[in-house]
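Notes from the 1:1 (GR / supervisor)

We went over the backlog. Supervisor wanted to see one worked example end to end before approving the batch request, so GR pasted a single chain during the call. The sequence is below; no edits were made to it. Supervisor asked that the structure be written out right there so they could see what the output format looks like.
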Amino acid sequence: MKDKLQVCLVGVGRVATSHFEAIADLQERVELAAIVSRDAAKGKLAAEQHGARKVYSEYEAMLADRGIDAVILCLPHFLHESATIAAARAGKHVLCEKPMALNAEEARRMVQAAEEAGVRLMIGQSRRFYDAVLASKRLAADGRLGRVIAINEWNYSLRLEDHPSTWRPDLEKSGGRIIPFWGVHLLDYILWMFDARPRTVSAQMASVNPKWEGEDETIVLLGFDGAGMASIHLSWNARIKPTHGRQEVKGRIWDSKKNAVYERYVIGERGTLYMNDETELYMDGELIVSGPQQPSNFALQLREFASAIAEGREPLASGREVLKVQETVDAAFRAAREGRTVVL
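Structure output shown during the call:
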């Protein structure tokens, strides 16, 4: 393998900015070999801004480039499956943005394609890679909490009035509203901390904002073997903090410092964790970790991806691991739709 991992960033939308910055932070290990964008002007501009050597307007043409080791997929949700499978069959390692897919069936095919091709598949559960979040997992793994009994999470943010892209309002292309965009982060943390698939899933969902379809108010309850339990409450209708003197960004879904609450409790037999905004972690009331996050969580995520490839191992948040999250998402939608508890 080359000294530096040669990556191609596919798609230059909003989330691509964080990946460009991560690549720049890891320039001693990762090189931006190419960009793929259907919009030639946007692709050329991004290449000039971020130092990409090549720009492709066709995904298939890029996959034929033997100088590219891996792809970072920043694509609409409905393209994740096909783009991942094509990349795997071309021998490229894949870092695919979350949510993994539109459903578990697609996700299974992605995992199968990567395993058959012998490439690494990592899903962009980027919020695992905050120092506070990683520290909470280490504390649980080291037994400091004892057996984890319950995890409760809240994510409340402002009602979104504008769609930030053309495809997001289409549920067939996005797979849902608040669950695929933010709920997968909360569910991923719970499954990661319990290191298990839930046994039961219950959910209630509502579409409150008349400007779009899909769930913008959601409660999900999870039951695990051994009496473990978890809950999440997601809202894009909350007005939590004052905005006097602040300029809000048009169309922004999430700003963890403005008009939002993002908190969680992890309750164990011997200790309790409290996390605020994924940058502050307390154990039994004592501050353990405090932000700001440096380097960024996206840089730490990319470092894990590159290390897994170099070491020939499965990355954290591998496709096979995050498949369980997609299965839980499917169960939550089914539970809400049918008004019953789903047993996995």
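Supervisor's comment: The mean pLDDT is 92.
Batch request approved.
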